[in-house]
Amino acid sequence: MNTTTPLQSIKGVGPKSAEQFAVAGLRTVGDLITFLPRKHEDFTEVVSIADIHPGKMTIKARCEKIATRPVRRGMKITTATLVDDSGKLQAVWFNQPYRTAQLASGDEFYFSGEFEFQYNRYQLTNPSAEKVSDIGKGTVQTDRLLPVYSAIKGLKSQLVRKILAELKPLMTMLPETLPPAIVAHEGLVSYGDALLGMHFPKTRDDVARARERLAFEELFQLLLASQLNRQANAKLEGWHIPFDLPAVKEFVAKLPFELTGAQRRAAWEIIQDFEKQTPMNRLLQGDVGSGKTVVAGLAALSAARAGYQTALMAPTEILASQHAETLSRLLEPFGLTVGLATGSVKGKARTTLYDQVANGTVAVVVGTHALIQDSLQFHKLGFVVVDEQHRFGVEQRQRLLAKSERMPHLLAMTATPIPRSLALTVYGELDVSILNERPKGRKEIITKLWSPNSTAQLYDLADEQIASGRQAYIICSLIDDNPDNDVKSVEAEYKRLRGTRFKHRKIGLLHGKLKAEEKDAVMTAFATGELDILISTTVVEVGVDVPNATVMIIENADRFGLSQLHQLRGRVGRSAHQSFCYLVMSDSKKPSQRLREIEKSNDGFYLAEVDLRLRGPGEIYGKAQHGALNLQIATLADTKLIAKAQKAARTFVLSGEDMLQYSQLAGQVEYYQRLTTLN
Ligand code: ADP
Ligand code: MG
């Protein structure tokens, strides 16, 4: 038996359970032994019912009486009386009706849960229940930490534990997966011991040492990958784009505003990268409204002057057409043509565009992922810009980059600031430019939480702004009303407000189900000031730039994530006028921490840190890239361990040791390299 043995050949795994394992992604012995427990239930301190006190408690008891009854709206409550030699206790479960069948047998169980005062009595709330006889046969059970695994549909957790017990001998013989010098230097437990420590710990310390070793390993792989990416990039030969000072000067002079210091710095960094032998691989991070587009425009001009085309990819059609317009305005004075390639550019228009891109008449092509279609061929693609880069997968970026004979220069732009801890790991070895300066004359957006019961006042405030020539957004999370809840929808609000409070104003409706031409027409009408109010879903979330808009009303604000709220708020505050953002709560009694944080701060970098703390990295950076990072153990908040792993990865790279002799390491590193590279 080894790690590649199919689970089905293990004693106790039949075809049926093998299938359930497979559905959960577990096919081989190796998969199962690295299927790590979610947590460890601590039965080392069992208290008797007479000694119980509020807090997290474990008791060893039998169930005397148990019943499940429905309460409101499909909720079910199960109530049980638990007894041990010292006394009785009530336990309550919500929506776990199966407890009745599980516990009615009268067997002895360990119950672990929160002992608290609820509904005027003390009770054990939602305790887990582990049958005592399942844990260890008759012997000393009380020095036992029980691993708890994520549920696998159709499989009892006892079976998972039993099969892992079968594999215990194998775990003791597993070869080391990290370079031995590193294990020794860092004082880590061996790979085999780490797995044993996770699946069969005797003490809390066993678990801690196992976790540390496995977390270190994950971070080491990730950081090694990012260093190798940098090395690989340094070996590539890119296009040489010389600095054209007169053109850049003219571009800056023609702008209707003065560049911020941060914009100048970023532009300068890009221009310097263009002159190097290796292709640029740069992340441009700038909070919403910090002015990234014009930096990309300046770089595109430099590329065009040297005879290279630019492709700019944006995540939505609205944003792509807005960028095409902005860049036309910036670049046409230099005799450059900007084209737009989206899904709705079809037929004759598309053929013409593709011809012009292929023969080089079009200098800059802006588009959605339609840009990566094989039929779109460039004359000489030298520069690729990906706006809101976290919205795209690695694959999409790579397919666009592959449209050039050599690796083009890449500028990935994002308004979702990457917290320092994450920047250190995933983007540890990237070149980063940061726009941390607001354009001159901008005022802080005033943000206020708002009660749903006083919207009349809110509309008055919005109307005042409109009367003085400004415009307003109203954002709802739904397109249509949903009979099951009171969440506001754009369709209903559009109808309602058009007939009542805002009868005298011009209102537009925007959502994702409209046809591309309809979206375009509404967006254009709003951008040109024809409309006073735009009622929209989050399709305007990223990038949309209408500087005259100063009011942002977000209905049911608690339904949105922190970075989403910050992005939405970023649609206003784009001119010298004072802007306002009103977050209307679904229920004014209990503003969530998210809402309180966003009310407090306009700083995207601060909010990104908060968001990382509240939700974790996978949720924030989207499945496309980070979901697959799949860190099982390590947390990116552990900066100390990150620093250690960083150092170890550097030392390893410098040592020149061949990674290929560690096959598991090499495989993981290659996977992470593909996942975290920008190009
Ligand atoms: P983002 O970084 O969110 O993509 P944009 O590039 O859309 O920001 O720019 C936001 C708005 O600010 C645009 O209307 C743009 O013309 C304007 N802008 C950009 N740079 C400056 C500046 N230095 N001074 C004043 N306005 C600027
Ligand atoms: Mg933008």
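^ magnesium ion complex. The domain at 446-601 is CATH 3.40.50.300 (Rossmann fold). The first helix runs from residue 15 to 23.
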